[in-house]
Specification:
The structure holds two protein chains of two kinds. Helices cover 75% and strands 3% of the residues of chain A. The chains are: A mainly alpha, B mainly alpha.
């Protein structure tokens, strides 16, 4: 066991405090717009905290550290693209301003306004499918992190996963977005302190000169130049730019934060400043991974990179970073860092759980009820349906997390599962907002071609992630153009373009 | 390689510094945002209650 009594005490105190604070949120939930979009009253700083906390978790640290371990400084390219694209979206208000003006609660809701109810349901299904598959690996990897750092026997990983999930469910189900935002604020502060502490420890222990020398020796130019690195290259960089534009505008959990702000101007400022945080969100954990390579990369070679060997045990590259933390952090500091990482875990999971459940209830179940001729549900009933969807998603996450292992780097698996709906949704939203000719037939063609372009090559043909992602966006764009040119134009009344709570 | 190393070193410093700086600002100013948000939610709930009565 790596944890001392003081480490356990720090973690236990944090968990109790976090869940209690989260439960306070239930007091403020009066109607569905409180539950789903926090009453649309978030200011700049709270908006930054909740957006950053939502997109920075243990899973983020793990997959970025794995990228750093496997590809060295060249991996920084992915992190820089994510941050710079976010700053551009924030400065220009590309898509997000228009979305906020429409007072949406979910991304697929836009599809009913611009296209049709049927396309909203199809989009809702694909968003939920891609989102839940994406989140499906979170619990297992987070469980791995916690067991390695704390020294709990890895056979107890299922128990650790279940405890994490139950704690998140406790406040997410009851207080919805209000609870999520309150806990996000506290969690953002703690996770940032932990991130900065770990970065300082990692560089101090590995040594900057040793880090550069190790990457140079093991990987040569490919460890620094993303275009020369065979795993990346130009296609990867272009795909990443497209992907990050789509994530920052159409990713449900990110979009929900934009919908929750006071107005379009606030949403733009939140996005811009969070873009700077995103630079560190990627680059700092990648640095931890490179430090782990420097300290422990002495095992046999796989694709030219030595496996990590820690205390005589050979590990997978993704486990090198937590093993490093278990060894370099002293008692007390280890507890503070885990108490900083746990909030990161909980803030991401609760937001994602909440985001995908919201899509299932608002964009699949509610519109289906209307198709079947049933009347709208009251706010109270909608909140109840959301809670049931939350429980359903949680059960699936446990199942998928236990039985599925991503074939390559986790970052790339997450990118491809996100692409299942992002390729089509991004293309349809751009078409809907900026191309008058786009129509329902084009929308269906884009969503289905984009999803097929991501699922079939990756899960069945086993193509590389780069080609898969690039193909999915290309097929979705082709689908929208061809479908719209062949299909009939649908006239949308201007009053329909204003959604209400 | 030297050019890339310089580029990544500068990127790392910029990313780390902006991460720490924004965290500090958000921690200090976010607390007052939180208070305003609570009052606004309570006001909305109160208005809704009055409408229902």
């Amino acid at each position: 066991m790596n944890f001392s009594v003081i480490d356990w005490a720090i973690v236990a105190f944090y968990l109790a405090a976090s869940v209690s604070v989260g439960l306070i949120g239930k007091r403020f939930v009066g109607k569905i717009s409180h539950y789903l979009v926090a009453g649309r009253e978030l200011g700049l700083y709270l908006g930054i905290a909740t957006l950053a906390a939502t997109e920075i978790g243990t899973i983020t640290f793990m997959y970025n550290a794995e990228l750093g371990y496997k590809y060295g400084f060249a991996a920084f390219a992915a992190a820089m693209i994510s941050g710079l694209v976010m700053i551009i979206v924030g400065r220009t208000g590309f898509i997000i301003s228009r979305f906020r003006e429409l007072k949406l609660m979910t991304v697929p809701e836009y599809f009913e306004i611009k296209y049709s109810r049927g396309l909203r349901i199809v989009t809702g299904v694909l968003v939920a499918l891609g989102g839940i598959l994406n989140m499906g690996v979170f619990l297992r990897i987070e469980g791995q992190f916690l067991t390695i750092v704390s020294g709990i026997d890895t056979r107890h990983i299922v128990v650790v996963m279940t405890v994490i999930l139950l704690l998140e469910l406790a406040y997410t189900v009851l207080g919805g977005m209000v609870s999520v935002v309150i806990t996000d604020f506290i969690q953002y502060v703690l996770l940032s302190v932990a991130t900065i502490l770990v970065s300082l420890y990692a560089v101090y222990h590995a040594g900057w000169g040793n880090i550069v020398a190790k990457v140079s020796t093991v990987m040569g130019d490919a460890g620094f130049d993303p275009i020369a690195n065979p795993k990346f290259g130009l296609i990867f960089l272009v795909w990443q730019i497209l992907l990050w534009f789509s994530i920052h505008t159409c990713w449900q959990t990110t979009a929900m934060r934009m919908f929750s702000t006071k107005g379009p101007e606030t949403s733009k400022r939140v996005m811009t400043w969070t873009g700077f945080i995103f630079l560190g969100r990627g680059v700092l954990p990648m640095l931890w991974g490179i430090a782990a390579l420097t300290l422990y990369g002495t095992g046999s070679l796989t694709n030219g990179v030595p496996a990590p060997v820690v205390n005589g045990q050979t590990l997978a590259p993704i486990d090198a970073m937590p093993a490093m933390l278990a060894n370099i952090l002293g008692p007390g500091i280890r507890g503070i860092v885990v108490a900083g990482m746990l909030p990161a875990t909980m803030s991401v999971n609760s937001s994602y759980l909440f985001g995908w459940s919201a899509v299932i209830s608002q964009d699949v179940i509610m519109p289906l009820r209307r198709v079947l001729g049933k009347g709208p549900l009251s706010s109270r009933a909608q909140i109840f349906v959301n809670r049931i969807a939350n429980l359903f998603v949680s059960l699936f996450l446990m199942f998928w997390g236990l039985y599925y292992t991503p074939p390559g780097a986790v970052y790339l698996y997450l990118n491809v599962t996100g692409t299942i709906f992002l390729a089509g949704a991004f293309v349809c939203v751009i078409g809907g907002l900026y191309w008058r000719r786009s129509n329902v037939a084009g929308g269906y063609a884009a969503m289905l071609a984009g999803a097929a372009g991501a699922i079939i090559p990756f899960f069945f043909l086993h193509w590389s992630e780069n080609i898969t992602g690039f193909a999915a966006f290309g097929l979705a764009a082709g689908g929208l153009i061809v479908g719209s040119l062949l299909g009939r134009q649908r006239v949308v009344a201007s009053e329909q373009l204003v959604s209400t709570d | 390689m030297n050019g890339w190393l310089w580029f990544w070193t500068i990127s790392l410093v910029v990313a780390g510094t902006s991460f720490a700086f924004i965290t500090l600002v958000v921690t200090i100013k976010g607390a007052s945002d939180l208070q305003q948000w609570f009052s606004s939610l309570q006001r909305q709930n109160k208005n809704d209650d009055e409408l229902h009565h």
